[in-house]
């Protein structure tokens, strides 16, 4: 399955909907999409089925930069927490 990116403008906030299997090779495209918009920005992860560790780290960085994560599955959220705990 390919990755799908869709932008929706919702009440003054840009929501970037991501779906598919997100891997590290997609990160440059995600970063470009985020840079093209002004805050507030949210990533809707409802359609995300699978991620790799680099995507998990990217999502942690997004939250650190005040990008809201919507519909983040429990397994991704748990992995994000474990990655944060591993930081020195």
Rg over alpha carbons: 12 Å
> How much of the sequence is in beta strands?
35-45%
CATH architecture designation: 2-Layer Sandwich
Using the coordinates above, name the CATH class: Alpha Beta
The percent of residues in helical segments reads 25-40%
Spatial order of the strands forming the largest sheet = 1-2-3-4
In whole angstroms, the N-to-C terminal distance is 35 Å
Provide the structure class.
alpha/beta
Order of helices and strands: EEHEHEH
Which regions are unreliable across 5 or more consecutive residues at pLDDT < 50? none
Overall pLDDT: 93
CATH topology: Transcription Regulator spoIIAA
Q: What count of domains describes the coordinates?
A: 1
- The fourth-level CATH homologous superfamily is STAS domain
Shape: globular
For the sheet with most strands, the description reads: 4 strands, mixed
Structure notes:
With 88 residues, the protein is of the alpha/beta class. It is built from 3 helices and 4 strands; from the N terminus they run ββαβαβα. A 4-stranded mixed beta sheet has the order 1-2-3-4. Helix 2 (53-64) crosses helix 3. The protein is globular, with a radius of gyration of 12 Å.
List keywords for this structure.
88 residues; four-stranded mixed beta sheet; alpha/beta; Transcription Regulator spoIIAA
Q: What is the strand and helix layout of this fold?
A:
Blueprint: E1 4-10, E2 13-22, H1 27-35, E3 41-51, H2 53-64, E4 68-70, H3 74-86
Parallel strand pairs: 2-3, 3-4
Antiparallel strand pairs: 1-2
Helix pairs in contact: 2-3
């Amino acid at each position: 399955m390919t990755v799908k990116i869709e932008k929706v403008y919702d009440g003054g906030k840009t929501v970037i909907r991501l779906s598919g299997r997100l891997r590290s090779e997609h990160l440059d495209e995600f970063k470009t999409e985020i840079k093209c918009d002004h805050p507030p920005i949210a990533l809707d992860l409802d359609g995300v089925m699978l991620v790799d560790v680099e995507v998990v780290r990217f999502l942690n960085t997004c939250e650190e930069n005040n990008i809201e994560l919507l519909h983040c599955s429990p397994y991704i959220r748990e992995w994000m927490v474990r990655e944060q705990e591993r930081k020195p």
